[in-house]
Design brief:
The complex is a heterotrimer of chains A (about 375), B (about 375) and C (about 325). By secondary structure, chain A is of the alpha+beta class. Chain A has helices at about 115-120, 140-155, 180-195, 215-230, 275-290, 365-375; strands at about 1-5, 15-20, 30, 35-40, 45-50, 55-60, 65, 70-75, 95-100, 195-205, 235, 240-245, 250-255, 255, 260, 265, 305, 325-330, 335-340, 345-355. Chain C folds into 2 domains: about 5-175, Thiamin diphosphate (ThDP)-binding fold, Pyr/PP domains (Rossmann fold, 3-Layer(aba) Sandwich); about 195-320, Rossmann fold (3-Layer(aba) Sandwich), CATH 3.40.50.920. Chain C has 13 helices and 12 strands. In chain C, helix 1 packs parallel to helix 7 and helix 3 packs parallel to helix 4. Classes of the chains: A alpha+beta (about 375), B alpha/beta (about 375), C alpha/beta (about 325). Chains in contact: A-B, A-C, B-C.
Amino acid sequence: MGTFKLPDLGEGLAEAEILEWHVKPGDRVLVDQPMVSVETAKAVVEVPVPYSGTVTALHGTVGDIVATGAPLIDFDSGTVVGSMPATSEVEYVDSAKIGRARGGVAARNRAVPMARALARRFGLDLADIAGSGPGGLIKLDDVLAHAQMDAAQSQLRPEGNQRALAVPAGATAEPLRGARRAMAHSMTLSRAQIPLSTVCDDADIHAWSQRGDYMLRLIRAMISAWRAEPALNAWYDAASNSRILLKHIDLAIAVDTPGGLIVPVLRNIQNKTPEELRAAIAAQKDAAHQRSTTPEDLRDFTLMLSNFGTLAGRYGIPLVVPPAVAILGAGKVRKDAVAVGDMVAAHRRMPLSLSFDHRCITGGEACRFLAAVIGDLEHPQ
Amino acid sequence: MLEAPPRKPWHNSQMRTVAEFKIDYKQILDPRGEIVAPLPKFAAEPAEVLRMYRAMTRVRVFDAKAVNLQRTGQLGTYPSSLGHEAAHIGVGAAMQPEDVLAPVYREFGTQLWRGVTMKEILLYWGGDERGNDFGRPRHDFAWCVPIATQTLHAAGAAMAFKLRKEPRCALAYIGDGGTSEGAFYEALNLAGAGTLPVVFVIVNNGWAISVPVARQTATQTLAQKAVAAGIPGVQVDGNDVFAVRDTVAEALNAARRGAGPCLIEALTYRLSDHTTADDASRYRSAHEVKEAWALEPLIRVRQYLRNSGAWTEAEEQALLKDCTREVDAAVNEYLNTPKQSTDAMFDTLFAELPLHLREQRAIARKYGAKPRGH
Amino acid sequence: MTMVEAIAMAHGWEMQHDPSVVVIGQDVGANGGVFRATAGLQARFGTDRVQDTPLAEATIAGMSVGMATHGLKPVAEIQFMGFMYPALDQIVNHMSRMRYRTRGRLSCPVVIRTPHGGGIHAPEHHSESTETMLCHIPGIRVVCPSSPARAYGLLLAAIRDPDPVMFLEPVRLYRAMRQEVSDDGQALPLDHCFILREGSDVTIVTWGAMTIETLRAVGELESQGISAEVIDVATLSPIDGETILASVAKTGRLVIVHEAARNVGVGAEIAALVAEHGLYDLHAPVQRVTGFDTIMPLFRLEHDYIPCVQRIVDAVQLTLTD
């Protein structure tokens, strides 16, 4: 218990009269809060609480005269240093939980900081990116790969960042569906992923004994070329940077239909007889025109052929759809002026354009393949 | 004075005494104001006695005001020196200006005598480091809160004086509780081993916060701790300003002459609480305090002055008025001193502020609270 | 009750149930401690079990070693953290390594309690928060409670722990709040963080009195639509890194708040921990909001030293800006 005495209120005033107590015994008080009003000869003076504590007794009531230095009020306070309340009215709301009591939290979207920053720069959501690191950690390359894909696909995303074009009067916007939509997707993919290179040449077919079944001859030539140069019948796996040389050829053939480009697949052509091939081609063409090609017949091709020459065009730069790595484009057969010895003659020739994925096919491989195709095509039968 | 409990020697084998100790005690002015020992020269000069009495009154008036400031929320926790005026003024008057004082935190009488200002004292206890930046003496140590550490500082300063062959002394205060700290023993030991010009003054006021001296130690006196260090130790009546001044002056002279250190135990009583936030009635009796008041130091000097016809009531009142006026002016200055800017947290940390702290100084400026009152 | 009352209550419970527990320190007996943390104990358990020691911190720490290695469980008070330093020799050179150097033959079940930190207008040297010094010492635990209930439960755990525990009691919290605390002798676990608030946008890690500013900052952030998770480290050494890392995995952002100076503060250890084990969860650099690397100023400037609510809010905002 500490007794606080009436302090010297200034200029040697000897006493003061208690006018009003602002605290009472039992009150928990804080330093500086109003404690008592006293009147001196000069003025009414507010005496603040001198130090925090609990009021235990008042020495005097209203009207009493207290001498300077006489006991005024008793406190119970609680410290040797500093300024601290005797207690608190602040109620502590405790919602604490002991740590390590929760189950393991699955970490979401763990990414190397640079990858995270890059994703942010590209406007990519980490949740969409597959991480190739341990535990699904997203690394820089993952973001880069995804960014390329994403850049390609952003044109297809209706909710993408691009503003729709203003459709001029009289015209209508026709959303691409079905085969057209698929083509937009696969060609965009091709462009985004494959460093394409194309080599062109002509096959001189003037020696053919019978006019012909260009498709069959082309297919036979491709099989023959594959035997000479197997590298073009392969898949490229970007994730592992490896190529898979295939022991069979599933040939995708481009079929033009009113509904769009359909690219059905002829399976295992290396094992099929010409009759079987013809039947397969016919069947697939029918199905394409009837829009009944099954999804299974569109998948998993290993090599591609586009005989656009049935329509028009000499050379082209046909696109390879991944994971395949090569496509042969055949242009319109026509008579060309060719050099025969030192003379010029008119020979029927088939223009050929071989596009290949230059990540895993060398120019040499491609040219050897093409040479083999030409060699077979130039055979009289 | 503590009476030793009779102790039987614990050994029964025949041993011969190789060393003994005795502790002498001095009192010149007794509680009634009577002279009980030969008067030192300074005490024979009324002007000098008056000078000391004025100083004792001044510090008491200041001290009361400081307590009041704390009580009214205008000063932080404050350690009152009530009852210690003779010890403090006696020491102050015995020291030379070029000597170095290593205080604890209660010896305002000594500091005011030596030139520390009331405003500086108030600033420090009001939470402002500028209080430690004494205008004078520039060489005195600042207040020292970690108990007993100042004794080693004093010994070190004394070492510097000795190495430079300066005729200066260091004087360290310590409380009764402080004599339990290792640093105290180490300082005495060092001073003795090095024959250092340092005087240690124990102000034994009976209490270390709530712990009485009897619980601090088994020794009969605190002065005899000097024996363990091989240095002289004496006791004086700490409420007798003549005895304190005379003994300390002798000790300082000896030290100055190269005779080495001395330990002086001044017996007094802590009439106040340990600090303004302590409540001594929790652990000691009102009766004990009342008895101690009868022995307090101002009474006897006042009486001595009156007895010699050198002091009247009118002069007493005038003195009180003078002191009050001086104190009020200092308080006013203190209350009107705005707090330091946040830069003060960085300015004197190093001689030159390192780079990383410039950043932090900027942060502190940015978030600095507006200057407040007290 | 307040924290300081809860601390006294914990002493009482444990002394009642374990006769080997002894309280020592300056002014802990008749005075009940300068903050009343040991109020009533000497009257209840006597002067042998609640002892006022001589004024010497090295004595307090050293005698604790002697008492603890020989069957007692001393709960020793160092009156303020600023006076801990003479005791460091005994703590570092003996208490921390007694079990280790005797291969388990001798050990020190000691608790050293001390008021920690500033903010109560105390005199010089009375506002220290130098917990880093202690955390760096292997062989001792360092604990800092932030509520009356946790002070009760953690002190019981500390006294029951067979190894030395430094129990740092934030002065600013001693009487800052009241809470129902049941005197049931239930200890809380050491070496565990406490999750004071759950949130999803940022993790704020803190301890001691800074939980006050942190929770205020969290309120402000909430009004800005930011959801903060608040973790009270509680045991500063050894740190429960698991809880912190799990939280950072959830939020991706971390702000550490402590009153102690920045340089080599415990916040640096936590930041390093997260850099090592949680880097891939971070969306932004770790922020530390700390006291400045200067001497704790006298009390007129102490609230310019102690990190304010705005600094915490600003640090959180920093983690959220790209």
